[in-house]
Design a protein that fits this description.
Blueprint (H helix, E strand, L loop, with lengths): L1 H22 L13 H16 L16 H9 L11 E6 L2 H22 L2 H7 L10 H4 L2 E8 L1 E3 L5 E3 L3 H18 L3 E5 L5 H6 L6 E10 L15 H4 L4
Antiparallel strand pairs: 1-2, 2-6, 3-4, 5-6
Helix pairs in contact: 3-7
Length: 242
């Protein structure tokens, strides 16, 4: 009886230990280099200077982007933090003139509806100082478009389809990484959000379970490019210390 009880206790202990081991995630050493305070200040000031020059552009050159540049920036976007590391995004790069034409036609059709009847007057008033309208020639002129899709489900390591957690937050972070990367390598961008954007799913052959999140226009600014004279809020208006 005693030996039988001991065997049962040992078996339970082993099972508990196994569950703990299974639950523990596999880890690797963190690759991190701590820099001096002076270097941190220098880097932050330099990065701020670079990012202050970032502007949304609506007048693009048709000059082609060097091969591999967009791909590297997409890899950077893919490093963004995201819910449960599900990486529930897809970036569809469009360079084909024919596909860009179809996207422009579909987007302008939606935009005509938006400006003509769907948008409330308050929204139109908010956009007025930017000078936007239903015409979107940059969708054809720019050398590349990146359609960003938000996945509602992903396939896990066991091959099972599972629900995605924090999809909007995750894809927003990845998009921010992408815009920053493209700017820092010397490209201009424009975030374009025609509503609705279901036409992107059809034109680009994506799954109905993927929701178009944003259309990013990418390229070089036109030589005569001008941008709205706007200002950004200062630090005191956008932050607080507690």
């Amino acid at each position: 009886m005693k030996s039988g009880l001991s065997a049962a206790v040992i078996e339970l202990a082993l099972r508990a230990k196994y569950r703990i081991l299974v639950a523990m995630p596999k880890t690797i050493p963190l690759c991190f280099e701590r820099v001096s305070e002076d270097e941190m200040r220098s880097r932050s000031a330099s990065l701020l200077k670079v990012m202050k020059a970032r502007r949304s552009v609506r007048a693009f050159s048709s000059d082609l982007i060097p091969e591999g540049v967009i791909e590297k920036c997409l890899e950077i976007a893919g490093r963004a933090p995201n819910g449960a590391n599900q990486q529930a995004w897809h970036f569809a790069v469009v360079k084909s003139p024919e596909v860009k034409r179809r996207i422009r036609e579909a987007a302008e059709a939606e935009e005509r509806e938006f400006y003509g009847s769907r948008a409330p007057q308050e929204w139109l008033d908010a956009l007025d100082h930017l000078g936007t309208d239903a015409q979107k020639p940059f969708l054809e002129k720019a050398p590349a478009l990146i359609a960003i899709f938000q996945k509602s489900k992903v396939v896990d390591e066991s091959g099972e389809e599972v629900k995605v957690y924090y999809p909007k937050e995750s894809i927003g972070l990845a998009t921010g990484f992408l815009i920053s990367a493209l700017h820092q390598v010397g490209l201009a961008t424009l975030t374009h959000t025609p509503s609705p954007m279901k036409f992107l799913t059809e034109i680009l052959g994506r799954s109905p379970s993927e929701k178009p999140f944003l259309l990013l226009v990418v390229g070089y600014p036109a030589e005569d490019c001008e941008v709205p004279d706007i200002t950004k809020l200062n630090l005191a208006d956008i932050s607080s210390t507690h």
